[in-house]
Structure formats: C-alpha cells, structure tokens
Design a protein that fits this description.
Shape of chain A: globular
Number of strands of chain A: 6
Strand content of chain A: 5-15%
Radius of gyration of chain A: 22 Å
Strand order of the largest sheet of chain A: 4-3-5-6
Oligomer: homodimer
Order of helices and strands of chain A: HHHEEEHEHEHEH
Chain lengths: ~200, ~200
C-alpha cells in the first residue's frame, strides 16, 4: 500500500488484528484516530496500557480486577456459600446485570475443549476445588450451553459430587420472548425434557 | 457497572467512543486486550500514539503522511499537471488501488455542508486555488456522489472555470456488475443523462 505512509499502514495493520475488525473497519478507525485531538488519542493509548498493566486475577474467584479481591468477593452482602461457575468475566457481568443473584462467582477462564487441546488443567478448576474446602452449600454451573460448556459442566459435576456439595446447572430452554418456530431442535428437546409442573 | 473494576470500565468506555464500536464490541475488545501478552498490547498503544504524533498533511496535496511531501507528490513518474480532488485520504487510496490514475491529488478533508455548518473556508479549498497558479491542465473533481459531494463539486467548478483550466467530474451511473432493478431512480436517471455513444 504505497499510497499511505508507513506509520498509517502500521496503525491499520495493528487495528486489523483486533477481533471483529476487518480491513475496512481498521482503515476507518485509523483515520478517525488520526483526525482526533492528540490528547484524546494519547488518553486512549494510555488507558489501554494502564488497564493491561494493572489488571490481575481476583485471588478468590479469578475474575479480572485491579485489586487483590474483586468487589464481589470483598462484599459482606453476598452469600459466600453459593458459587456460580462461569467461563469468563463477561459471563459474570451478564449475571450481575440481572441484579438478582447474590452469591459469589468462580471464573474458569475457558472451557474444556479436546478439539482445541484445552484440558481440565488449562482452566481454573484446581482453584475451584480448593475453594470447596471452605463452607460451601451449592455450586451452580453456568458455563455456556455449547459443546465445550456442557463438557465442562459434566466434568465439574462429576468432580464435586463425591464431596456431597449440591451441584446444579442453569436451565436450558426456549429464551423468553423466543418464537418457537425460530428455535433449533436441540433447544426444543431440552425445553421439553426440562419442563416444570405448573 | 460495579462488577468490573474501574480500569476495565474506563477501557470499555474509551473503546466504545470509537466509531462503529458499540457497548458489546467495546467489552469484547477490552477483554481481548486484557488477555493478550503485555508486549502486544504495548505495541498497539505505541503504534496509535506514534501515528498520531508523527502524521501531518502533505504540504502539496494535504493527504495524511509522515513526510513533508507524500510519496505521490514527490514521485517524478506522476503527471503533476492533473489534479484529482477528493474528500479524504481513504478516497485517494480507493483511486490509487485502481492503479490506472497517474496524476496527483488534492485532499479537501471534508465537503461543503450547510446542514453541518461546514463552509468553503473549512475545507482545503484555498490551498487548491493556490496550487492552480502552477501549470495545471485539468482538475478532476472526485468528491462523493452525495448531496455534500455534489455541492462541493459545483462550488469548485464555478471557482475554477474563470481561470480557463479544464474541470471535469467523475461519471455517475450504474456500478459495474450492478443489477438495474436494484438501483435507485436517481442513479438510473444519471446513467441515462450521462449515456455515451458506442
């Protein structure tokens, strides 16, 4: 690309490496940034570096945070005997947005996937088992409803069952507001199997 | 958003300010960056800052470049007597990709838009008129085919006509490979008006 200067090309290439950003979007972003006041651009760059430098895992639940204990683990208003196991911090945030769950979390940072070569040792499973030596009444498995999420859920439940702690799995079924004819067969069957008496 | 730490929230907010990036994409990008090796993230941040610090306008055609004269203006292989007027550097790049235009460019950095309060003084028009005092044989106006682009084209042509320099406008019509039934009426009429004898 002889028509842009090297620095612009490098910027476009770097931006195009981000997930969900293709060549055209990278170009648009690059020229947007080049037209912004220098201070705004410096602030963006510094925020990116700062966040990456200072973020670490919460030593209790392993979510991403900038403190030793995340706000949820350090709160006395949460029920520390109920642990919801999620795949990542975004899933944690999704449940927090409901505002109705008052237990704590455990972030696995992945799911077991033999296809991708991710085994039980590659996610924060050992750390979960260590936490279970405390006084825990229930573990709710909220991994995704994908093949990897289901495999992980099965694996964890088998691991926990012998300890006598209650293990549950969030329900699969038709999403609220979902139109039956638009929903795949597997979900429809799950919704039937998981039917509840009214 | 109590469930993320401040630094993550700030990163998400900064990313969500970029054009075409909504709240969900900003979250996805933020967690992608937090999971990348520190060196990669630092490189991205530095590329952004570097590009913004070192990019300036080419003193001849006003495209964005990191040199005093852009590669096109400093090339002896280009025809410096033909100037193509474009709205921005991306449009310049679009024509450069065709590989068939061997003149030089003039980047306006915008288009006249009374709606947005952008007048002739807000784009690089005075600079274009100054360039025309050199030996120029033709000015090709390649602003967009939008209301603003058309207004700008009309304005420029009226300004240049008295100097006796040839002024032309890129053709409007049916895009190559375009299906007639999918094309709007205005374009169809333009294509009819602009018909060429075979």
């Amino acid at each position: 690309m002889e028509y842009y200067s090297n620095q612009i090309n490098r910027l476009i290439e770097e931006l195009a490496r981000l997930p969900g950003i293709g060549a055209k979007s990278a170009q648009r972003l690059a020229f947007y940034l080049l037209n912004q006041p220098k201070d705004n651009v410096r602030q963006l760059a510094e925020t990116i570096m700062d966040a990456r430098e200072h973020i670490c895992y919460c030593k209790e639940c392993f979510t991403l945070t900038d403190r030793e204990l995340c706000p949820i683990c350090s709160s006395s208003q949460r029920d520390h005997s109920t642990i919801m196991v999620v795949e990542n911090t975004r899933d944690l945030a999704a449940y927090e947005k409901t505002g109705k769950y008052d237990g704590v979390y455990h972030v696995l940072h992945g799911a077991i996937s033999p296809m991708l070569g991710i085994g039980p040792g590659d996610i924060k499973l050992k750390e979960l088992m260590t936490r279970l030596q405390q006084d825990i009444s229930e573990v709710i498995i909220a991994t995704n409803s994908s093949l990897e999420g289901e495999t992980t859920a099965m694996y964890i439940s088998k691991l926990i069952k012998p300890t006598g702690i209650k293990v549950s799995r969030i329900a699969s079924g038709v999403p609220v507001g979902g139109d039956l004819e638009c929903i795949d067969e597997v979900t429809l069957l799950r919704a039937l199997e998981g039917r509840v008496e009214l």
